[in-house]
Amino acid sequence: MLQKSKHTSLIKTEAKRLGFLSCGISKAGFLEEEAPRLEKWLTKNMHGEMSYMENHFDKRLDPTKLVEGSKSVISLLLNYYPDQQQNEDAFKISKYAYGTDYHFVIKDKLKELLHTITTEIGAVHGRAFVDSAPVLDKAWAAKSGLGWIGKHSNLLTKQTGSFYFIAELIVDLDLEYDTPVTDHCGSCTACIDACPTQAIVDPYVVDGSKCISYATIELKNEIPAHFSNKMDDWMFGCDVCQDVCPWNRFSKSHKEPLFNPNPKLLSMDKKDWEEITQAVFSEIFKKSPVKRTKFTGLKRNIDFLKKG
Ligand code: SF4
Ligand code: SF4
Question: Within the chain, which residues score under 50 in pLDDT?
Fold first, then answer.
């Protein structure tokens, strides 16, 4: 018992030192409550063209099937709320994509955390996951008491809102487990009311195929006509449901220099974005998550916005 408590506190202290906002831990096992929810969401085709969401159904609900011998899921949050935002007259990029791709930044931190665990505790086997399809990161973070899943389906907390990344380290080590916090959405419906495409079809249910994030990032072909005039000037992702959430009044700026944007990204106005060239794209989005759409994808989104 003493060992477990010592190991747990070592991991949480190290997570803090590495700059994570918080760290919560759950026993690895089958996510009973999530199973019917995920199945219903997939059956209703709310994942649209994101076919990877259908893969590894069993593994996604049970990390012991994903990482052999795993005993604990360590969930970690990393703040990305920027202290500066884009020019007001610009096509918009989701705040999480301002700086260096979070996959790189977080993977490095998780590697360091695992290194400390193996150095201090011994032969612990673990795997790191960052926004990775096989792990239901929000469900694990909520189970571990890091926040509750709001009506917009993002994880949020009373202290820090929802602008952070979620990552997991799944390890074959017994630890002390945290308990979930209560839901504080109450009677609020701000996110549902503000969503430009009515993608939040019911409280806590987002139809991914109607979401602007999906249209601007996941879609490989043309953006469907039903998004016309509803994109609210978003060219990569969408933050509306989080921007209007009252708990995000408490967001504080991140302290990760790698998440700082290229100054040009902040200053460019709509005209600049309309005229963007491959060279400018490569300069501003070096190592950025925006590279996922490539230059042609971002151009497609801008052209769609230009049409109205
Ligand atoms: S990200 Fe934008 S489009 Fe998607 S649910 Fe939130 S407000 Fe709606
Ligand atoms: S806007 Fe309101 S309903 Fe939506 S997540 Fe925030 S508190 Fe919950």
Answer: none
